[in-house]
Amino acid sequence: MPDRTDHGNPGNSHTPGTPGNLPPEIRSFVGRHAELARLQAALDPAAGPARTVSVVGVGGVGKTRLALRAAAEVQGAYPDGVWLAELSPLHTAGLVDLAVMETLRLADQSTRPVIDVITEWAHGKRLLIVLDSCEHLLADCARLAAALLSRLPGLRVLVTSRERLALPGEEVLHLEPLPVDGRPGDPTRSGAGDAVALFAERAAAAGRPLRDDDPAARATATAVCRRLDGIPLALELAAARLTDLTLDQLHTRLGERLPSPLDLLTSDTDERPPRHQTLRTAIGWSHELCAPLERLLWARLSVFSGGFCLEAVRQVCAGGPLPPERIAGLLDRLVAQSIVLPDPVISARYRMLDTVREYGADWLHALGEERAVRRRHRDHYARLAREGCAEWNTGRQVAWCERVLTDHANLRTAVDCALAEPDGAPATAVEMAGHVGFLWRHCGYLREAQHCLDQALAAESPPGPGRTLALWSRGAVAILQGDQEAAANWAVRCADAAREQGSPVAQVAAAYLRGGHLALTGRQAEAIDVLDAAPRLPVQDDGFGAAQLQARLALSLAHVLRGEFERGREVADEVRTASRKQGEYWCGAFADYLIAQADLARGDIRAAVSGARTSIAGHALLHNTVGAAMSLDLLAAAVVTAGDAHRAARLLGIGTRLWELTGRAQMDSPDLIATRRTCELRVRERLGDDAYTTGYRAGLAMTYDEGIAYAAITQ
């Protein structure tokens, strides 16, 4: 998947350059000293045989917080990273493997089983994978964990769930609520009073500090914590209410038997565990204290996956008694009450805890609005994807790439909704899959693009631009995956659709699929014939405009692979000029690569080195791992030609690491593979095997960001 910047870890002990993706800890960590020590010991690679450790407990008890703190504390024992896979946004079975692969930043371009891709990359590595919120995907999580652990001796898996995975040798930590009785720091009882300590800290944040010299207030706080069973989420929600209520008022309201949403959503025979019922009642009490429109917004927000911004909330949640102009103020109120949380990494973005979101989803269902709001969510992200495709071949390309990465979970949910309920019109699902699949293909989510496009195109749908774009996107995915047989099949179907549609631009796009397939399978002369025959039309700003530029890139590549470097350079220069005119980077970075290839062939080493670096920078801007890997191979060849074999060896190691992330080295192109091998042989001859191996391994050990930064250094 596209590489993302490491964000540190909950314990604030992150070392720059350390692999992993643990998020920063926003709020202080209170109590749990014994549980944390036990979990750290269980995660110590030298501690014992248990390689699956599960933190199990009711919703809201603090499983994720504890797991992330423990993972941060043991990070140094896992030199290949601690990786958090957040599974709560997944709504469809069968996506756990893919989510873990994306978490590990493996931008695999192949059609191999995901388990094989992960295993190949992780072989010989020592890493910890955190599977967070597994309860709704237990079977898939258990299957994946068992398969990976059987193949990877250096792997440990930390799980948070309401139920254990039930794997052999699994060590389970049953997490209980925070203890209430006693004073914080009481040495006679481990953790005594931690619930009150947490409540007091959050009360202070709400502007209602508890004074140690006020025993009545502390007794009231203890009673509140006991009423809420010491469940951390319930305590946090209650403390947030102190912005509106005094502590005594809070205690009184908690003692009242308010009508709970739990009564509306469950029967008298509800079999939830008592503490789960306590949490639901506590959330229901907080819900009751919300104003009617705040409750309605809470319910409607439950359709979002991963996170959301204010504009998306306006588009999806407004309607009926909830006017758009009230959304911002109501959202601020939910943030003030800790119902909605600010995103810890991305400003002006929000999220909800799983348990709070589930409660809202129950209410949405009870209100009879679930289907309508989910459709609004689907339609909003369908519009978003359509706009992204319409502006992809423009100066907004980088911004759209970042938007696709940020809203990936919501796009996935919207596509699932469109595929499951296409309103009786397959064209709706095909059009959405075409737009989303196009964006995913260009932003590194090839497997998800393949998955949604295959599902959408399996059903008959009427011809039109949406269907043609879906066919083109599917073929373009196959090309980058190195699945040339599939690419040839989709090329034929796309060409037929383009002719049926009567669109010359779509026919140029179809020519890219056919010509690109031929070029990458060593049939350059045929590729040149196909691509030269495509009409030259004004370049559009949309997805088909991007395909127009890619058709010219395929022509340039065919000439370069055939040894016709000057002609290849001419065509690539045309693409670069058009790319700059459009303001886009994706095709422009590939054009820089092809021009640098031609410069190297004609002996202009300085230009080749500069062009390869420029290409790498452009690809990195769009998280294009394949493009960056291709350009690193070229930079290594240029650098060794310039006489710096030591640097070339390290660049080859960096390139190999990036190709590992893609899953298929050199896209299985025999010509690109041969060129890379020639470069390796030259470097070995210059350095000798030992020096080559040292430099190569140094590059291979670098992270993605370190490798890209090293390639940018001018020497």
TrEMBL record:
Q: Does the keyword ATP-binding apply?
A: yes
Task: Provide the NB-ARC domain boundaries.
Answer: 36-164
InterPro entries noted in UniProt? NB-ARC, P-loop_NTPase, TPR-like_helical_dom_sf
Q: Where is this region: Disordered?
A: 1-24
Keyword Coiled coil on this protein? no
Pfam families listed in its UniProt record: NB-ARC (PF00931)
Q: Which UniProt keywords apply?
A: ATP-binding, Nucleotide-binding
- Which GO molecular function, any one, fits this protein according to its record? ATP binding
Q: PANTHER family from the entry?
A: HTH-TYPE TRANSCRIPTIONAL REGULATOR RV0890C-RELATED, REGULATOR-RELATED
Q: What is this protein called?
A: ATP-binding protein
The organism encoding this protein is Streptomyces hokutonensis
